[in-house]
Amino acid sequence: MPLSEEEQQILRQIEDELKQDPTFAQRGYRVSRRRSALLVAGLVAGLAATVVCLAINFVLAFVAFVFVLFMAVKLESEIRLLGREQLGQLPISAWLNARRPDEQSDV
Description:
This protein is an all-alpha fold. It has helices at residues 5-20, 33-56, 58-88, 92-96. It is rod-shaped.
């Protein structure tokens, strides 16, 4: 159901007010590219440590595997934040005019 003209006007007004608020931009998601790179490096190092530790001791390999799982979960949460940050940069008009893939065009 499309928004009425009045509702679209209200949303544009809210968007303009948020653009003028200097503290609003500071409250957004901030993703550190350096932290993401460190998580990827830790994930790769953990995988390598798991393979090497398999030849030495099963318990060490298990600890390295748990480390890999921890790094993977942290990396996944960073990627989610990055996605939210990118979506947050879209103007409201992009959200209003977006169509779902399953919607048929009226043309």
